[in-house]
């Protein structure tokens, strides 16, 4: 009997690298789609192959032979420039590139397509009411809009073509090698400086890379995962001051958070052009992962404290190189 086989796009990224390692360790034959040579090539059981998201159809068909599932992680996340230019760039990769991958999968007879979307499709938060998969979408920027368009396109495409579809909307992901917003929080905590965030009373859902990868594996193989959209998290929602305090303790830094009115923080940040960044620090964004637990019998494999400890350990090792 041939081994189970999966193709992962975006395999050289933060999530892709960890997912390829986990799938290979679980006995899967892994094809790592890439645009250049990346670290996935050195993982035992992982075969790297050049697959652009718009061409080289013959390469795609060769790579997809005997593949049962595609996990589509490849996406454009950050785009500078005018709003119109950014929207076009997001759409080119996140919608058109996703369509191309789905077309190649259907042509090759791939059974299931797993798409990593974003909780930003639901919105930017702002209340303690948990987001649910059946809530009306409320994307607030061009990136989130492109992810919503990709979801809608995939639902129609897979319905017509008979390919199973799994959509996963993830909140902020952290773990070794994380960049962007969480990496900035790590650097902030490492400074050990007084920070005016004690009075922020929000709640934020997060997910560690290990728990995300664990759920993606369920999305690849669980019979009940197909045909639905899943929201997932670590299961413990943290406030911004709680998160920063935990990170500081793990770095053996003092907790020097002090109280300051959040409304003044917001005003000051807006004047400096940092309103969106401050909103992410002050606002709540909570997800309801109950359906994943009840219908797929999924549970986060590691707790928040362990996930943060592993992340901090990797962060400190990187800084000490």
Please report the number of helical segments: 11
> For the record, what CATH class of one domain applies?
Alpha Beta
Mean pLDDT: 92
What's the helical proportion of residues? 40-55%
State the secondary-structure class: alpha/beta
Helix and strand string, N-terminal first?
Answer: EHEEHEHEHEEHEHEHHHHH
- CATH superfamily placement of one domain: NAD(P)-binding Rossmann-like Domain
- Overall geometric form: globular
Radius of gyration: 20 Å
Stretches with pLDDT under 50, minimum 5 residues: none
Output the strand order for the largest sheet.
3-2-1-4-5-6-9
Q: Examine the coordinates and then state which fold CATH places here, giving the name of the CATH topology of one domain.
A: Rossmann fold
Main sheet specs:
7 strands, parallel
- Using DSSP, what is the number of strands? 9
- Judging by the overall fold, what is the CATH architecture of one domain? 3-Layer(aba) Sandwich
Beta-strand share of residues: 5-15%
First-to-last CA distance: 45 Å
Short account of what is shown:
This protein has 321 residues and is of the alpha/beta class.
Keywords for this entry:
321 residues, 9 strands, two-stranded parallel sheet, alpha/beta, seven-stranded parallel sheet, Rossmann fold
Commentary on this structure:
The chain has helices spanning 14-25, 57-63, 83-108, 142-161, 180-191, 209-221, 240-250, 262-271, 275-282, 290-296, 304-319; strands at residues 5-9, 29-34, 46-50, 69-72, 112-118, 164-170, 172-174, 206-208, 228-231. The protein has 11 helices and 9 strands. The strands form 2 sheets. Strands 3-2-1-4-5-6-9 form a 7-stranded parallel beta sheet, with helices on both faces. β4 (69-72), α3 and β5 (112-118) form a beta-alpha-beta unit. The protein is of the alpha/beta class and 321 residues long. The protein has a domain at 5-170: Rossmann fold (3-Layer(aba) Sandwich), CATH 3.40.50. The longest helix has 26 residues, at 83-108. α1 packs across α6 and α8 (262-271) runs antiparallel to α9 (275-282).
């Amino acid at each position: 009997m041939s081994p189970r086989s999966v193709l992962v796009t975006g395999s050289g990224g933060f999530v892709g690298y960890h997912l390829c390692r986990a799938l290979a360790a679980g006995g899967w034959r892994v094809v790592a789609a890439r645009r250049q040579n990346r670290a996935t090539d050195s993982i035992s059981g992982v075969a790297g192959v050049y697959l652009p998201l718009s061409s080289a159809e013959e390469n795609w068909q060769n790579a997809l032979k005997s593949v049962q599932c595609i996990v589509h992680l490849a996406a454009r996340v950050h785009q500078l420039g005018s709003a119109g230019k950014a929207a076009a760039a997001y759409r080119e990769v996140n919608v058109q590139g996703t369509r191309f991958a789905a077309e190649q999968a259907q042509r090759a007879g791939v059974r299931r397509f797993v798409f990593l979307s974003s909780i930003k499709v639901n919105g930017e938060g702002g209340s303690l009411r948990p987001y649910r998969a059946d809530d009306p979408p409320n994307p607030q920027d061009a990136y989130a809009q492109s992810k919503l368009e990709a979801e809608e396109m995939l639902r129609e495409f897979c319905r017509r073509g008979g390919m199973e579809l799994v959509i996963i909307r993830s909140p902020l992901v952290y773990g070794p090698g994380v960049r962007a917003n969480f990496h900035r929080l790590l650097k902030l905590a490492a400074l050990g400086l007084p920070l005016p965030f004690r009075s922020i009373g929000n709640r934020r859902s997060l997910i560690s890379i290990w728990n995300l990868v664990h759920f993606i594996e369920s999305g690849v193989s669980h019979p009940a995962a197909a045909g639905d959209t899943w929201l997932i998290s670590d299961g413990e929602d943290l406030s911004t001051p709680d998160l920063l305090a935990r990170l500081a303790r793990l770095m053996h830094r003092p907790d020097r958070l002090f109280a300051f009115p959040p409304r003044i923080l917001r005003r000051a940040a807006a004047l400096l052009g940092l309103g969106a960044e401050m909103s992410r620090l002050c606002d709540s964004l909570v997800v309801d992962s109950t359906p994943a637990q009840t219908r797929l019998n999924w549970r986060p494999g590691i707790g928040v404290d362990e996930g943060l400890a592993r992340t901090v350990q990797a962060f400190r090792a990187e800084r000490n190189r």
